[in-house]
Known about the structure:
Layout: H1 2-73, H2 83-99, H3 104-108, H4 121-167, H5 175-182, E1 191-194, E2 199-202, H6 204-208, H7 212-215
Antiparallel strand pairs: 1-2
Amino acid sequence: MAQEIRExxxxxxxxxxxxxxxxxxxxxxxxxTAQTAATTLSGQLASIDKVALKYEALSDHLxxxxxxxxxxxxxKSLIPVTDLTVVRINEVIGDAKNIVSGDAYLDRVKEFVPAxxxxxxxxxxxxxxxxxxxxxRFGERLKHDRSVISGxxxxxxTIQIAxxxxxxxxxxxxxxxxxxxxxxxxxxxxxxxxxxxxxxxFDFEGLDERNLESYLSVHSTIIETK
Length: 226
């Protein structure tokens, strides 16, 4: 009987060790996934910020161009614009198409052919307005995508820090401990209140229920120009 008890205890201890090793491997795999996702999301955010700079510069330039053509249009509705104006509107159209993707109305806008009679002022003004409206819609997409990716990046960093702390021996990282690393970038949705400890601890059970690679993946509709 005593031998059977010892054997049972030995098996239980072996099972615990096996479970502990499997959990350690899972946490290490989750950490690698989070680190990879953080790198990808950081790259996407940097790409969007580059596009945003180009968008802001073009929007500002187009506003000035539109206002100037609008002034010149008054009393010149049937007069062809200058060659320089044709060059400038074509530059605006080209730059907008280089930044904006997936806008059917912008896709329909064609550059003016710099040969023969130049377009009249109202035509140039109308084209500039169409491009301006497309840029405005694109600005909303920029804002939305940046918000989504930035939020997901904060969430990824929170998961990454919690997993790193776990690897250092902190099995149940508290919210305050993660905050020391991330500050206001901490994603609080990954913490739950533990009545026993009276603290908000990282939700590893919730983490194990997710396909982390898929969960931390975000598709951006913004394409960086070259």
